[in-house]
Amino acid sequence: MRLFPPVPSATAIAIEQILSLCCQDGEEWGLQSRTCSSYNKSLELVPAGLHGLCLSTIEICCSKQHKIYQCTAGQIAARQGLSCSLKGDHSGSEFYTDCCEACKIGLVVGSSANKCSVEPFAFGSPWDEIYEACCNDIKKEGEIILLGGHDEQGLCDQFPTICSQVCENVEGGSYVCKCNPGFELLDDKKTCVPVSDEDNEAVEVKRCGKGFKLNRRTDKCEDVNECETGEATCNPANQVCRNTRGSFLCVDVVLPDIACDAGYAPKDGQCEDVNECLELLDACDREKEHCLNGRGNYSCLPKAVTMCQPGFAYNVSLGVCEDVDECEEEGACDEGYLCVNIEGSYECVAVVKNYPTPPRKKVETCTPGFRRHNDQCVDIDECAADKNACDSNQMCTNEIGGFRCDCKIGFNLDTVTNACVDINECQVNAHECLESQRCDNTIGSYTCIRLQSCGTGYTLNAQTGNCDDDDECALGRHNCKPPFECFNTKGSFRCRQVSRYQPPSTSTTTTTTTTTTTVRPFYQPGPNPYPASRYSSYQPQLPPCGAGFERSSMGACVDIDECATGEAVCGPDQTCKNKKGGYVCVCPPGHMIGRNKRCEDIDECAMHGSKVCQQNSHCINTVGSYRCDCKEGFKNGPNEMICTDVDECKEIPGLCHQRCLNYWGSYRCGCHPGYRLSYNNRTCDDVDECEEYKSANLCVGICENTPGSYACRCPQGYKLGADGRSCIDIDECQTGDVCSGRHDICTNIGGSYRCTTIECPYGYRHDMDRRNRCERTNRYCTVGDMECLRRPHSYSYNFLTIVSNILLPPGGRGLFSLAGPQYFQMIDFDLKLVTVDAAPHVRPVDIHYFGLEKRTNEAQLNLLKSIEGPQDIELELSMNVFQNGELYGTNVAKLFLMISAHEY
């Protein structure tokens, strides 16, 4: 069973291609030594929703190019003896310094005649490669080129062991090694050795030959064990290293000649399974599939799904494949038989009393994706049997012989990891949030958060998205003081006086815009200023009443109504209102007392800014009041002070070609899948997926664009696969008697078929049991008649169809096997290329394209190289049987290979 991951969506493919182009632009920008953040080229070919991603990609690839440039400049500086400190502000300057220092260290080590190896330390990539390159280069040059002339410390101070005895720094940042008295410098310009004996005579410096090294303690040449030092060049697969004095030997390991079946190899005298997955002999797509090794074979499984061999199920918690007890299923065996579970399968045993009965049969294993039920192979519903067949971000769909994992809505397939990853709808502009809302990404979806405030006196309800009124009285946000109490209103509150004498109409509000002024009579002590005629019962012994009050005939102090007596002084456009102890001059609503104590209009729009009207309207001041005019895209609702959204999609039919999305204050046109919005932002143009995504190979065969989508079709002789994109060859030979001749053989080829008439040679006749074989008319030969013995007993005609440029494993692929009887002493096989008929532009094959693998009584024909098509090839595989050293008989198998030009 081979499962394929779903084809990546057109959006994912477009994003990958667009980001690839953005990266190329970034690299070109970096090659021009420009600042990566200053990229100013046009992005008109990039969709608006991907501008941010494209600019980020450009900056990353530009920075990468700067790093490569600075690293190269650092290596050049190191080789020229310049300082590794880069002056000024340069992009990627840290790579200049690190690459320069790594190269400098490599030059020092290389000039010291040491090995250019980073073991046991390691800088990491790319510093290790730079270190080894500089080290090896100076060893090849054979001269000292040491750097760091501008560094504060000399090389002798930085590398104390660079010389064996004395190190002296010289100008130009280099150094020179010297020796103590009585020693001389060797050719490596680093090592010092004694030069004279006690008689002060010259002493020859002792040198050791190849395979030996000098022991300076004993002054003797000792053998080097190349097998331990790793200098030996033996092949560990089939050779053993043995040390000798001054050299080594590679001894071949002789293994017994064992003939093993395909998928097995001889090891330690026996056949062991070949792990094709470990040895990379498989043909699995490692990016999309897992290679699962089996006994003598292997299988390729999709990475997104964990599969087990037939008869086993995957245990998610343990991470292993466990045997399935088929006997637990109802009807596993027919009536009268007992079900016995075995590993990977089950057996049905007849139930007979009094005497044992051997098992009825052993159920054969069905192909992967099917299970045995009542002697039949039925499809396994993997989605129902294994809840973890697909991961949590995928939907499982059962198919005949397998199943499919598709990404859920809000997820997209990552072609590298083969996992479904979340789509950030907010980032790729695939959301439907309004302009007044903020898009927040969630796993598999997104949410729209309102940005506009609700205004004073209201609070946003996050659950409903509505503005709820604040009860200032309950929340304690009012400024009412006794004898007034708080009374809540929509968006505000009022202070209402607690008095049975005070009518509700005299209550005041904190939100009123009327400005009043109070004029109270000024009380002057001394004689009563009011006329005596008003006080008929004036009692001078009582104290005078307060300002704004007078005594009545009863001696009590009562309020003076200054508005009625005409004592009040108010402007011509003001209204006088009496109050206890005085009076007030009130301006009309929407006015306040200004200069010269006259009423002036209040500009509510200038005084309160955006608080008097909603954000979707403009404030217009009027005499004594104001009005709120709705902005474009809004209209007045039942309340003239509130603007409601205009649903352009409902009120203007045909506004958009396909989809119309209304949002707060405006609208947006959209298109169905497979279409894109044109430049007028209203009509939709069909996307030609076949042309736009032709590099993605949407169809294996022929891609045809359709309105809003595309369709795949196949050439004649092929049919469309279940995935809707691959082409499967039609086997015309299975559809009926397409070949009319009596001795015709039908051979299916790519996209067609071929009828071949078998004509037996002279002296041969058609075999009644096998249509593809001609047997000799006279089957017997007299003793010693070699000519008769050399004539083949039979000719078998075998037709094989192979697609061109087929992928082959390293060891080739088996095509045909010819086996002989096992009771003969010796059987020899021979292969011969008879004819080759290739097209003019096709390279014809030769005998080296094939290999003959001989065994005791069997031979297998292997294809070693891929063949171009179209071409027809005729081969003859002869089998010669010997008994007692003499030829007993010969059989010939004729092989006709038809190489198709198609690669479907």
TrEMBL record:
Swiss-Prot/TrEMBL keywords: Calcium, Disulfide bond, EGF-like domain, Endocytosis, Extracellular matrix, Glycoprotein, Membrane, Receptor, Repeat, Secreted, Signal, Transmembrane, Transmembrane helix
Renumbered residue ranges of the record's region Disordered: 504-524
Family matches, as PROSITE patterns: ASX_HYDROXYL, EGF_2, EGF_3, EGF_CA
SMART domains per record: EGF, EGF_CA
Protein family (similarity comment): Belongs to the fibulin family.
PANTHER family per UniProt: EGF-LIKE DOMAIN-CONTAINING PROTEIN, FIBULIN-7
Name of this protein: EGF-like domain-containing protein
